[in-house]
């Protein structure tokens, strides 16, 4: 009987020792935390691009994972498991656009959204210092319909230019903040449902980067804009009356391989019916309803 009692006590001590060892091993292992994204107004990217999230820990970016967005704006993944200690130490969250596939462990320079953690939440926006770092709520502008690159006065509604010709000399009409590297502005006319670029630009008071559709009678003015006179894209006919058609200013990643406007469209208007030519028409600021934004929680 005495030997049986000693054996049972010894067995109990051994099991307790194993249990304590297991607890110690669990304490030494890395626990997992959960990062949740609640972001709206993200658009689908091209097949060779992905969104990638990053947390900033001690000034260094740590990936939270990549995801896609479908045509309905739904994220393919919105919850990510991360090392709990790193997640707790994160000061900021950044969302980038990355080439896919890629092997670069660092984030790209195309930083779309950013936000600083306050407690367990971060409000993310394009205006954060880790992203575009600019307030587009004050963006404004206007445009005229005119075709300065042709001598034909019957096609005046077939061109859009972001200038005011009413003074002794034309002046720019766009009020837009400077963009960081890897971002550029682009103008658009949506012609019969097809977005057609008026050109990409960084300065509101200089010519944009291209003029593939303009006429050849005269040089275009030194402002962003385009005459839609020749080289019409498939399915369209130039010249065209832009009355009743949308006019857009977008912010584009650079480089950008999409033929459509990017998700960031700070200024928009629909040209009036029978729009007056050579007269300015206002663009509307639509940042609050159009720009991606949301929260990230840990």
Structural summary, described in words:
The protein is mainly beta and 298 residues long. The chain folds into two domains: 32-133, no CATH class; 136-290, no CATH class. It has three helices and 18 strands. It has an eight-stranded antiparallel β-sheet. A hairpin with a 2-residue loop joins β2 and β3. The N and C termini lie far apart (57 Å). The model is unreliable at 1-28 (pLDDT under 50).
Topology of this protein?
Blueprint: H1 2-28, E1 32-40, E2 49-57, E3 60-67, E4 79-83, H2 84-89, E5 92-99, E6 111-118, E7 121-124, E8 141-145, E9 159-161, E10 163-164, E11 171-172, E12 183-191, E13 194-201, E14 225-227, E15 246-253, E16 264-270, E17 281-285, H3 287-290, E18 293-297
Antiparallel strand pairs: 1-4, 1-18, 2-3, 2-5, 5-6, 6-7, 7-18, 8-9, 8-17, 9-14, 10-11, 12-13, 12-15, 15-16, 16-17
Q: How many distinct folded domains?
A: 2
- Strand content is 35-45%
Distance between the termini: 57 Å
Radius of gyration: 28 Å
Summing up helix and strand content along with how strands pair, one would put the structural category as mainly beta
Give me the strand/helix succession: HEEEEHEEEEEEEEEEEEEHE
Tell me the overall shape.
Answer: elongated
